[in-house]
Each structure stands twice: as C-alpha cells, then as structure tokens.
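Project outcomes to date are best conveyed with an example. Our students and postdoctoral researchers have been running inverse folding experiments weekly, and each run begins with a structure described purely in tokens. The record below, which covers 348 residues, was selected by the lab manager from last quarter's runs and is presented without edits.
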C-alpha cells in the first residue's frame, strides 16, 4: 500500500478518543498523519494527556448563532491557510465542520464520520465525498433526511466500540480524586448547552437530578463540566463539600468510567461509552434521540431519563466487577483503516 498523508481535524474532546486508535493503526501501516485541533473544552488537554502531536488552530468563539457562524468561517479560513502548505491525500473528521470547505476547495478527498443523524449536516451532505456511519442508523431514515446513500459506507457497530476498553486503567484515580470507597460513585456529565441541538429541558432535568443525587447520603458525585463557564455556574449553585468532586485537570475518561458505579450524561458520548463497557448508564438528553441511542435502549444498555419521576429508575448501588472483550474494538479499527486505504487505492 502506497503511503498516504492523512489530515485529521478534531474539534471536540470525544473525537480525541475516537481517533486515537485509528491514528495508531494508520501510523503502524506507514501512513503520515497530520492532526489539527480546535482549542475547545478538554480537547487540548486530552491530546496532551495521550501524547498526540497536533496543531492547535482556532478556538471557541461563543454560544450565539452569529458568533458560531463567525467562528466557523474564521477557523475554516485558518485551516485553509494551513492545509494549502501540505500535500494532503485524504481528510478525515468526526463531524468537524470547519475542515469541510478547505478540503473541498483544495481538492482533498473528504471522509466524514458521524453517528447522530439529526445533527446539522448540510455541509456534510453537500461537500463530503464519503460519509462513514454506524450500521445501526437505517437507510430509510437517512434517505428521509436527504442523505445520498451512494456516499455512505456503514461500519458494523458503534463509534464507541472503536476505542472503549480498559487496557490502561489508572488504578490510582479514586485516590487522586479523593473518592470515598464507601460511597456509590456517580459520574455526572451536564448537557452540552452550546450545541445546536440543545433544548432547555435538558438543563432543567440536570439541575433537578443534581438536587436528587445530593439528597442521597450514599452517593458521591464526580461532576464533569464541559466548559469553564459551565463549571463556574455549577460552583455558584452547589455547596456540598466532599459530596461533589470536580476534577481540576483532565482525567482519562475510560479510567473514570471503569471506576464509576453509575454514569449519567446530558449528551451522548460518555453514556454510550459506559453502555458499551457494561457500566450502568443513563441519559438525560432531551432532544430527539438518534438510532444509536434507541438501539442501546432496546438492548437494555442505556436508560432514558425523561422526567423527575424517572429518577427512581437509577440504581444507586455499587456495581459488580467489569469484564470487557477488546476483540470487537480491534476489528472495527482495522475495518475503518482498511476502508480508507481502499478509497485511496481506488483513486490513484
């Protein structure tokens, strides 16, 4: 196989985890991987934690639609200026919008992965050469949403199965976070309030749930704010010394999930990671659920929390030992990299 120069653009923290094993496999096969990243949330911290070389380009510019549009246009221009100085064969991202137009203008073959079919995907649908989507999303739903199925390759599984695993768990993490071993450890991730799909009800459920958990003497909460402003708001409203732990630095997500007895999330990625790993998982996401979450609910791996009454569904107890099979993860990584090589080989 001829060596490829692949550009991977990362604009959100979960994408670091997704691409980490893919980058490793690409480099193992002799390909040159260039990584750009937006300075947003925990993205930079995770890249540094895992020792992944990267070029920071662009940052978070604000929550309003006008500031988001400005930030997208600015970062697209910055990425164009960066990319034109490299001889890139293929561009890859997991829904990173800012790299779409630069890749298109520069004639770079663009592969976009995504797993939430109701995401704002106009740029993907029109400008991506290929869409890589989990097979749990049915074709008829994609067609109704205007996706050209000729552009679609489906991978057999969930994106979380690409990387979830407990190979290098930090056994000292509970000590580092000063967790009480007598308590039920609940990892809580607030809603993504800056996301275009966010609705107010998710925040309302989050605050009610936080009060509910704080009322339980047996529970200790590991709270993971998404942004500095979200952290400040939580700290201004919560007074529970020792009951709530907010890590003061980026922690390894897989290690945290491994040690958690319960994971509750206001978005999608962390709750799906826990569900795939066999950890009791609950979602307070109140926007339209995608096919992946529907699949996890049907199979009993994920529980939807839609109201205060549903809080009683949450089993606040110590979990049994976790067992995890990594064979599926290795298969998915090889499947995706094989497809990228096939695409490049077919275009030469």
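After processing, the design step wrote out the following sequence:
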């Amino acid at each position: 196989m001829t060596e490829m120069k692949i550009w991977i653009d990362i604009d959100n923290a979960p994408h670091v985890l997704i691409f980490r094993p893919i980058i490793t496999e690409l480099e193992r096969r002799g390909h040159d991987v260039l990584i750009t990243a937006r300075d947003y949330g925990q993205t930079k911290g995770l890249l540094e934690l895992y020792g992944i070389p990267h070029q920071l380009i662009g940052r978070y510019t604000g929550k309003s639609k006008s500031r988001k549009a400005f930030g997208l246009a600015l970062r697209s221009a910055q990425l164009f200026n960066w990319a034109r100085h490299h001889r890139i064969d293929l561009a890859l991202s997991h829904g990173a919008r800012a790299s779409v137009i630069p890749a298109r203008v520069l004639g770079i073959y663009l592969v976009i992965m995504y797993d939430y079919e109701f995401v704002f995907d106009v740029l993907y649908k029109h400008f991506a050469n290929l869409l890589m989507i989990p097979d749990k999303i049915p074709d008829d739903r994609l067609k109704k949403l205007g996706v050209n199925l000729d552009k679609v390759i489906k991978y057999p599984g969930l994106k979380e199965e690409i990387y979830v695993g407990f190979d290098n768990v930090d056994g000292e993490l509970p000590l580092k976070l000063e967790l009480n071993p007598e308590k039920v450890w609940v990892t809580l991730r607030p809603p993504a309030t800056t996301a275009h799909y966010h609705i107010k009800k998710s925040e309302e459920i989050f605050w009610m749930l936080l009060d509910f958990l704080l009322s339980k003497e047996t529970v200790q909460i590991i709270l993971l704010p998404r942004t500095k402003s979200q952290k400040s708001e939580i700290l201004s409203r919560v007074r529970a010394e020792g009951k709530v732990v907010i890590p003061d630095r980026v922690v390894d997500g897989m290690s945290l999930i491994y040690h958690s007895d319960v994971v509750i999330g206001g978005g999608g990625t962390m709750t799906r990671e826990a569900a795939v790993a066999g950890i009791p998982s609950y979602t307070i996401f109140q926007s339209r659920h995608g096919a992946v979450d529907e699949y996890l609910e049907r199979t009993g791996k994920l529980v939807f929390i839609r109201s205060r009454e549903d809080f009683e569904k949450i089993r606040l107890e110590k979990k049994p030992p976790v067992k995890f099979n990594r064979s599926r993860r290795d298969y998915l990584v090889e499947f995706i990299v094989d497809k990228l090589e096939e695409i490049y080989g077919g275009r030469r």
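The longest helix spans residues 327-347. The longest strand covers residues 32-39. The training component of this project remains on track.
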